User: Fold these one by one.
Assistant:
Number 1:
Amino acid sequence: MATGGEGTRYETFDTSGPEDDLIPQQSASMKIKIRGEKSIERFQEKFGTLPEYFVQVPGRVNLIGEHIDYCGYGVFPMAIEQDVILSCRKVFNNDENCLSTLQITNTQRQYVDYECRLDQIKHILCSREEGKGPEWYYYFLCGVEGVLQHFSLLDNGGKKLPSLEISLDGSIPQSAGLSSSSAVVCAAALATILVNGIRMRKDEMASLCAKSERYIGTEGGGMDQAIAMLASSGTAQLIEFIPSLHGEKVFLPSTAVFVIANCLAKANKAASSAFNIRVAECRLGTWILGKRNGIVDWSNFNRLKDLQRYLGFSFNDMKALLDKEIHPESYGSSDIAEILELNTDQLSQKPLMKKIPFESTRFELYNRLKHVVEEAERVQLFRKACEDKNPGMMGELMYQSHWSLSKLYDCSHPFLDTLVKISEGSAFGARLTGAGYVSKFTN
């Protein structure tokens, strides 16, 4: 604890320690207080008092390993200086029958203030209009709801929980592939456990936040939340999800400089089903590979890496299996149902398939799985290139990754492709980072 202006106490979460530690609570440094000035100012303006706590969560850039976390494969992100910072206060009501509330405001005035009861959040999230990008505060609601459900905090109807007053300030560019939305989810979850006196390990919180963000409708794999919790200064992290979530620090060559360039094409992955279709293509392809290899419970293998481990296959074995069992042409829903010996209605009712226009979609199974297997292998090669201090090889792998994302995964954009081409001859390598552009092109 540290004393702030006018005797106010400040407390902040620090996510820089070992990944298996509890998330520590510590006195806010002067650097944190300076970074939080805009948030404090907006908090005072909105709530008429000073905040009690800070929560700070970084954005991230993924160096390599795109669209493979939800297939169970390792990824290679690092945290960046741009972040989300919250000023927070918990408020208790003397009336024990009074229901607890959340009030949230944003330092960027184009974003409207929001207020709701804590026991209403799940209904609000489940009632969101499909096909429309969520309002900014929906991501915050995801983080709060995740904690409320995980710890069954609403069992008494939410009457004895503290209410939350929050001011948010973010410096992460939005829709730029740098995880601004996941940073908000993580910050919200951290604020909720803080005001309720809950302690958690970082890896546990990362898993909880990954699950929480799915309230928004996208079936992400957990990379963004993991690096937000496990990041350490001066290193990237090789984050693995199987057999359990863990991060390994990887030091980058001291002569390497990573430049993040924004091509200014925006896509909100929660505004359409395009992202979930990519996840579904990987899952359907995995089921087909399992089925054709005689696995009776093939539907239990939702992630390709789980299937690879079960079969004991190398990356080369997986490539050969893919070439043998799945053709390059697209599949219709009836084609897949026939292979899996199900009717289309049965298959369309699988949990993920209910989130996409299943029967009208043409699924590019071969291209998606080819990218996933080769990208997973590139992550391991990238790690070795880092250990060998070989920026030339690191760059070549980044170029390979980009064109795989552009041609096989169909999630780049002409602006992005142009940036990558411009970099040739003046950089070791360049690639798309983040989910990319998984919806129709717009300028």
Number 2:
Amino acid sequence: MELLRLSDTVPADAISRAKLFGITVTTAATCLLLQYVLGPLLMPVLLPKYSRLSVGDKVDWNSRIISSIHATVLTVSCTYVVFHSSLWMSPVFGYSKVLMAMCAFCVGYIIADTLVICVHWKNLGGISWLIHHSTTGIACAITALTGLYSFFMAYRLMAEFSTPFVNQRVFLERLGIPKTSKIAFFNGLALAGSFCLCRIMTIPVYWLVVYNFSFSTEWVALGRGTYCLFVFPIPLDTLNLLWFYKIVRGALKVLNLRNEEKTGDKLNGDSVGNVEKLD
């Protein structure tokens, strides 16, 4: 209730809640249409190997295509909001129409993706994903409904920059491309680099901004609304650190495999050379 009271501070020309609700519903419906209708129809034409995938892998593939589209739109929009607006000056009470629309867009995607995960739990399920989706979805809904936390939300949502590389890794695996191949190797580098840049290195920056904000008059005006600055980021930061640990561990395994392959090729080359000398 206190947050709804504070939402009275949003501009008079702010996007109405009815329009935001429409964006959410339209996004959710579009995602489900892509997942169950357009994806199965178009993918076999665009990628013949798609037809060879199992039913579970096809569901996962379609879900990741939608995830990549969502992440790209969100990253571009939120990067624009963070670097081309004055939200730095008022991280909580500053208002951005673009950010509000993106929050509604994100909620719609999360609703659809959560439904898909629950229906296909055997293939897609995971407690970590439910924690991620519920935390992000509720945070975006609060921002969309109240118009608050614009800068903080835009800053956190830029983390989606790494998502297309995560999905690309799975696509390559599904197509049977070895992890040690060049395309998989460079995608792995892009994945590790982008994940570190937008999900790990941003953690201390976020908490520094929150710390500095705690000395402002807006902090006092926000009241119990300051809890939102802690309740939602903490589980997301924990998940990101856990996922980054797994990414680094996987990257080290791939590097070891590549080194073993190079060593093996060199030994084979030396053996051939020795045989030729003996001949």
Number 3:
Amino acid sequence: MAALSHVGKWSQKGLVLMRRMLSSGNAPLVMVTDSGGVRTLLLNNPKRRNVLSLEMLEALRDGVTSAPAETRLFLLTAGKEKVFSAGHDLVDLKNNPTEYQRRVFGTASAICLMMQRSPRPFVASVYGLAAAAGCQLVASCDVVIAADTAKFSTPGIKVGLFCSTPGVALTRAVPSKVAMEMLFTGRAISAQEALRSGLVSLMVPSDKLEDETEHVVQSIISNSAAVLALGKQYIYSQMGTTPSAAFKQGTDTMVCNLAHPDAQEGIAAFKEKRAPKWTTPKGK
């Protein structure tokens, strides 16, 4: 239970107590914790539905860029809140000049690109509603575990603001017909629909979300960090190419991978029926 144990496995009671203790001072908009090679980023403004203000986005960005070298994986969560994130603060955007608006949208977009370009996996654990830019964050993660209570939407059209930047991540995560229906109607889709469309990797009963998230996180970080980084970089880079170019690049990548010490170790361990010893041990 390394990834979640430092916060009492994100129990709702534990989070409430933690937030009360912080309420007398300036509670961080994003609570950052490190344990066993996992950096957890907890969105921490539930009273405002974890709205992605510029301050929240900058805190999230800093939580990623300040990660220690031993970080193996990022876990993005909001605990068991009914709203994972409601997206951008539209009133704040409306009341500020164009330069500020560009800064907000640009920071959110930069975080999403950072997630996909990072050699480390990003996992989202979603209990409640991820709307607009909140859905954008989720769609930009590599793996998404959702409770059956989760919902996902791009509702900007309902207030006359098309979810253009959220649509970038959404249309790359689900079939275009599914994305366009969400973008054109603003309808929230259920966790079941999100699973069928590919926005979500796994769906579990709400009371099993913490355990399943922990299981997935540990399953990922038990593998070679170097090979995970190589594989992630390849998968994203080949998506924009033709099948012919992708297979050629894939061949080169696998040949390169075979020469890596961790591949040599993994194959030897498989043959010898023992656990592999990676060049970068778990949690280091």
